[in-house]
Amino acid sequence: MFVIPKTARSWVNVDPTSHFSIQNLPFAILAPLGREVTLATAIGDFVVDITLLREAGLISEKQFPFLDSFADLTQEEFTELRRALFELLEESNPILRDNDILKMKALVPLHRARLLLPIKPTAFIDFYSGINHASNVGRMFRPDMPPLLPNYRHLPVAYNGRASSVVVSGTPIRRPHGQTKAADAESPTFGPTKELDFELEMGFYVGMPSAMGETVDIGVVKEHILGFVLVNDWSARDVQRWEYQPLGPFLAKSFGTSISPWVVLPDALEPFRVTRLEQDPPVLGHLQTSEPMAYDVHLEVKLKPAEQEDYATISATNANQLYWSFDQQLAHQASNGTPLGWGDLYGSGTISGTEEGTYGSLLELTWRGSKPVKVGNVERKFLEDGDSLILTGYCQGEGFRVGFGEVEGTILPA
Ligand code: MN
Question: How large is the C-alpha radius of gyration of the chain?
Fold first, then answer.
């Protein structure tokens, strides 16, 4: 673990509201013009091409011979690479600071950089760890029963999702067709979803595998987590309602999942670790953790209706509203001996706060369509064709931020 001091500053001018302070230094895959893809980091308004730094001798070629995918590096090597980048970008170091030609080439303006899906996920698992979301959904769909099902406080509920439709921010999402049945109809029909929704989630990639048949102790499971992203788990609510029993969501979720391009390492989030929500009743021993991976991440959802030019914030909440921490999620997954795979992506489940305006889906924000969200002079119950949505999130330090950037998606017609 390498935690960058909160007093550190870069020679690159970083606005206090930038997600990419020198305390962050996340990783992404950059597709530079006319060159091979490369690992990159971010500082202020710039993306830093790490291969160019290596070619100039500023990053050890012996230590980092391959930099064209996340798979080239172990987690220790990511820590070492981040340490080397910190030293190059720190304000007192003249090596890159005073090399104008190399700076011009290696620092690409963020708004011009083409960032790819950081890791093509080998699996996508989606949890349901946002307790306020789970309670709201229970209240809406099972009004006569307790909002949470009996297992909720004993294990982190999840389902296996679809890895092949995970896409990077900026990829348009086509409105899916699906089978739905109106409550008063006798039989279902097939057509474009009328209840297209988003889900505000955090996610993490596994960076260290485990062997089949072996479990992973919760005390060491965090070593398997490479880093964190933001996740929009697009959902077709009308399809979901009809198909999900008894085996869970299937086509209502698998048409597309968007993630942010930056992988933020646990080291960067360590100063923002917070007490997890109290777990009552106490969880079983294999899920008990003394220093849970729960983080204080401000999360926001912004919507730009097709008719409008600007985004408006429609929700704001915090990742501290997760009932199950990330290490508990992964320890639960490994507890039956299934192998953890390098590149597996885990979503947290929708993160909602406790009051109106803090919910992580339109389903909740509009209370099943009964209270439309107003943006200027337009209303939305669910997403319309041409609507654009942005999820964003950051940790607030003293005078700096450690952020995830954005995950954007625009809805195409069916
Ligand atoms: Mn989800």
Answer: 22
State residue 141's pLDDT score.
86
With contact defined as beta carbons under 8 Å apart, do 359 and 365 qualify? yes
In three-state secondary structure terms, 235 is strand
Dihedral angle computed from the Cα positions of residues 361, 362, 366 and 369, in that order, rounded to the nearest 10 degrees: -130
- Residue count of the chain, please give it: 414
- C-alpha of 128 from chain center: 14
Residue 133 among the catalytic residues: yes
48 CA from centroid of ligand 1 (Å): 32
Given 133, 177, 224, 332, which residue is catalytic? 133
Q: Please tell me the distance from the alpha carbon of residue 117 to that of residue 181, in angstroms, as a whole number.
A: 35
Distance between CA atoms of residues 321 and 315, nearest Å: 14
Query: d(Cα 94, Cα 340) in Å, to the nearest integer?
Result: 42
- Closest Cα partner for 116 from 182, 77, 171? 171
What φ, ψ does residue 326 adopt, rounded to 5°?
-65, -35
Q: Are strands 373-375 and 378-380 parallel, antiparallel or unpaired?
A: antiparallel
Compute the mean pLDDT over every residue in the chain, rounded to the nearest whole number.
97
pLDDT tens-place string over residues 291-346: 999 999 999 999 999 999 999 999 999 999 999 999 999 999 999 999 999 999 99
Span from the CA of 377 to the centroid of ligand 1 (angstroms): 30
Q: For residue 84, how far is its CA from the centre of ligand 1 (angstroms)?
A: 36
Find the 172 Cα to ligand 1 centroid distance in Å: 18
Pairwise CA distance, residues 159 & 161, whole Å: 6
Give pLDDT tens digits for 388-413. 999 999 999 999 999 999 999 999 99
Written as six digits, the tokens of 149 are: 């099902």
Enumerate domains of the chain plus CATH numbers.
Answer: 28-116 (2.30.30.230), 124-412 (3.90.850.10)
Residue 336: φ, ψ to 5° = -105, 5
